[in-house]
């Protein structure tokens, strides 16, 4: 009679249990992994990892701190930004051009969010050369939202027909529609001044003069309307009348930096550079924080062969606003002219810290 098999030893029982538990754990891991894989087939891609907050990125870009472009692009890659925050970041993009920046702008122009689209239009108008601007903005001349269409009109209105290119006819149609819209609104100084610009674009000078006259009748102290009238008179060959109008306004508002700057620009157009310099310097004196005025003063100084004072004005801009790319690029050129290559290298190194993909660096400025 055969012997009954001996019961397994306690050690063997434990080993078998461990083996069964291991198999069960492996199967469980495989099932979970398969479930995750199936889910990921249908899930959207994970959002990019963002290492900085919106406020940090905005501050870094606005203040021109090292790495500003990278964190700005990183924030604009987020899908959870509010529209108003996105619009705020797009405004900072003006100082950080690159291929990536153009991709961001192109995407936001197509976003179908009017606030974001209008911010992108303004940034393109400030960032992109005139000959390329219509390629990005032109399609929005037929946008379903009227405010977006009119923003596109304003951005393209001053371009030549060659720069507008294929969108010339569309621009004229949209500008006419915009003019009809403004004419149907209760008149105001702002609306009539904009209407005058549209009439000028259409070549209808009598209507442009009428619109500006109405703007000033409604708002006698509207400086923008008056400056538009002065410029229109000058363009129409009425330089003496234009100068008289400007002198009258300066007599009424001698402390207006805007009017002093306009006088400087008028004198430059009429080749009176030394007098223009005085007016532009006065504008900067009245409003020292206005970097646009200081930039124009630097250019005027340079044109009169006053290179060192021009450089100082640009250096002052960069001390106040390190992110100001336009001033930095011009100062690099001026330092090159004077042979100060060490200072050129410092400015280029700072630019590379801000935005290593800046086209000026790629082109070997």
Task: Describe the protein's topology.
Layout (H helix, E strand, L loop, with lengths): L9 H33 L11 H10 L4 H9 L6 H10 L6 H11 L4 H14 L2 H8 L8 H11 L4 H4 L3 H16 L5 H14 L2 H14 L4 H13 L3 H14 L4 H13 L3 H14 L4 H13 L3 H14 L4 H13 L3 H14 L4 H4 L3
Helix pairs in contact: 2-3, 2-4, 4-6, 5-6, 6-8, 8-10, 10-11, 11-12, 12-13, 13-14, 14-15, 15-16, 16-17, 17-18, 18-19, 19-20
List keywords for this structure.
365 residues; mainly alpha; Leucine-rich Repeat Variant; 4 domains; globular; disordered N terminus
Plain-language structure description:
The chain has helices at 10-42, 54-63, 68-76, 83-92, 99-109, 114-127, 130-137, 146-156, 161-164, 168-183, 189-202, 205-218, 223-235, 239-252, 257-269, 273-286, 291-303, 307-320, 325-337, 341-354, 359-362. It is an all-alpha fold. The chain is globular.
Beginning-to-end CA distance, first to last residue: 102 Å
CATH architecture descriptor of the largest domain: Alpha Horseshoe
Gyration radius, rounded: 31 Å
The outline comes out as globular
Q: Which ranges are low-confidence, i.e. pLDDT below 50, for 5 or more consecutive residues?
A: 1-7, 10-15, 23-49
> What's the count of strands?
0
Instruction: Using the coordinates above, name the CATH class of the largest domain.
Output: Mainly Alpha
Strand content: under 5%
Strand-pairing-aware structural class: mainly alpha
Query: N-to-C SSE series?
Result: HHHHHHHHHHHHHHHHHHHHH
Instruction: Tell me the count of domains.
Output: 4
Specify the number of helices: 21
